[in-house]
Amino acid sequence: MSMVGFIFRFFAATLLAGSVTLAHAQQGEALANGVFLVAKPALVDPNFRETVVLITELEAGGGPIGVIINRPLDIRLSKLVPGIHVPEQFDRVYGGGPVALTQLFFLIRSREQLAHSMPVLADVYLSGDRSLLESIMRGDTKVSAFHAYMGYAGWAPEQLELEIASGGWYVLQADADSIFRTDPSKIWPELMRRAATQYTYLPNDTPRQRVALTIR
């Protein structure tokens, strides 16, 4: 199943109606552990400059897909889902990437997997289920963190590997604390410092990672 099938689809008409759907998701279907792509200073593409992207593996033949975690938008979730009361602490929306900007989904942090959610990390889950969203917003379902994203970042098969090989990205193991930081402006600098401790440099300045991380 492609990650695209998990995306919370908000086309223009359904945005106004507040409709939320999650195509093809099945509870308990595991995703691989997520990793962070940390844009190097030399990456000047405005879509990704100074970004951190949470990505997950896909099945063979599919390119990686993920979400930018450090670009808050000026729009509020309460405006996108009329009819659902959104508590202030959950009202922020992030720009997930340059692809499909009318699509929205959410990440939640929970000690246990919730119904209609998909695991991304040990305590981080992806969902697009309206009933789960409503339950979280009402406070009936308790989560320790919640972030909503519009758009996503995607790559064709082998495209991302080429970008990494050409020096565009650091690759680090993802963690929930970074995903749900209160101040997103601190995420990129902090992970750049983390990358400095996990990469060594050869005399020709070619980066070599101390910790082996695989993107398939």
CATH level 3 topology: VC0467-like
Query: What is the radius of gyration computed over CA atoms, rounded to a whole number of angstroms?
Result: 17 Å
Secondary-structure element series: HEEEEHEEEEHEHEHHEE
**Structure class:** alpha+beta
In round numbers, the mean pLDDT is 77
Measured by DSSP, the beta-strand proportion falls in 25-35%
What is the helix content? Answer: 10-25%
Sheet having the most strands: 10 strands, mixed
The CATH C-level name is Alpha Beta
CATH architecture: 3-Layer(aba) Sandwich
Tally of contiguous helical segments: 6
CATH superfamily membership:
VC0467-like
Count of DSSP strands: 12
Residue runs with pLDDT of under 50 for 5 or more positions: 1-32, 202-216
Explain the overall architecture:
The protein is of the alpha+beta class and about 220 residues long. It has one domain (about 5-210): VC0467-like (3-Layer(aba) Sandwich). The chain has 6 helices and 12 strands. The chain has helices spanning about 10-15, 75-80, 130-140, 160-165, 175-180, 185-200; strands at about 35-40, 50-55, 65-70, 70-75, 90-95, 100-110, 115-120, 125, 145-155, 170-175, 200, 205-210. The chain starts with 11 loop residues before the first helix and ends in a 7-residue tail after the last strand. The model is unreliable at about 1-30 and about 200-215 (pLDDT under 50).
